[in-house]
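[Q] Does anyone have a clean structure-token version of this?
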Amino acid sequence: MQNGHDQSTYGEPTGDQILINAWVTAVSEFYELHRQLMECLENPPQTTFSAGTFYIGQCSTDELRGCLEAMSSGIQQLVDSVQGESSEKGMELLAEHIQLLNDLTRQAQIKLALTKLPPS
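[A] Here you go.
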């Protein structure tokens, strides 16, 4: 204790604080990519039709919808997994959630990048 304050309050962040900050960042990035994918599907810059499938850039609209479904399913699993858990178990779950959110975000980034490429 320094000056009557807990070191974790004013000093170096605790492990839990670092984990929570990483989780907030992962959720923010996840949400932003989800929003961009939704916008891309709702207002596509340009679509092409090939072999019975619509494409935005080099990504099929089916792939975009599949990615959005995976993101929605993933976030629901995360919510379901933390309900009723202790704070210690909750912190372990946060670490797992960060990994899942980052994986889903990377998939969304790839799909979004494909939509910006010229049709092949």
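[Q] Thanks! Anything notable?
[A] The chain is about 70% helix and 10% strand.
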